[in-house]
Amino acid sequence: MKYLTIKELYNEVMACEKCRLSKNRSSVVFGEGNVHADILFIGEGPGAREDETGRPFVGPAGQLLDKMLSEIGLVRQDVYIANVVKCRPPANRDPQPDERACCIGYLRAQVAFIKPKVIVCLGRIAAGVILGREVRMMKEHGVPVHVKNFTILPTFHPAALLHNPGHAEDAKKDFQVIADIVRGTAHA
Fold first, then answer.
1. Which is the most buried residue in 23, 93, 148, 168, by most CB within 10 A?
2. Residues near 158 by beta carbon (within 8 Å), at least 6 away in sequence
3. Which strand (E) or helix (H) includes residue 33?
4. 54-98 tens-digit pLDDT
5. Can you say whether residue 35 is alpha, beta or left, with left for phi > 0 and alpha for psi between -120 and 50 degrees?
6. What angle do CA 97, 100, 105 make, to 5 degrees?
């Protein structure tokens, strides 16, 4: 479906019952931020706090994301944050292929409205969906991929960094790549 406005898209997503994830949700997590942002962050799906609030990345992983943004001179209001699926998978499991398929049109429409320079995929699930293939995060994180009018950059999901802080320095370097791309100083 072609949406004339982001509000039209928002209204459809909020009423969506296309897949089983809609049955147990408390909230739909559409996404939020600057709809004219140069950077779009995409996670895999909402967690428990996000399901409670209807906002993306508000728990501990969101706090870490905010800190990582500030380290490159940005705040949440400078970027847009969304997820592959808009409803929480049970027990925070990975979104299943059929669930991702139900939401991918919504995400594509968000990308079309926002028109970011950079799409940052937070974690292997988001990166795999966006790039359309399996992604080996340890090998591919921080490596820009140019697709159509976008630069896509896989990096670690903040929740993964909370569980494995040993990758924090790698993630910090990835965020510097993001900043360099947006400022036009990256060497790709």
1. 168
2. 57, 61, 62, 64, 65, 68, 122
3. strand 32-33
4. 999 999 999 999 999 999 999 999 999 999 999 999 998 999 999
5. alpha
6. 135
* Verdict on whether the full-model pTM lies above 0.85: yes
Q: How far apart are CA 164 and CA 121, in angstroms?
A: 18
Q: Residue 185 — very low, low, confident or very high, per pLDDT cuts 50/70/90?
A: confident
Query: Where does the chain have alpha helices with state H?
Result: 6-14, 48-53, 60-71, 97-114, 124-131, 137-140, 158-163, 168-183
SS3 for 118? Answer: strand
Q: Distance from CA of residue 116 to its chain's centroid?
A: 12
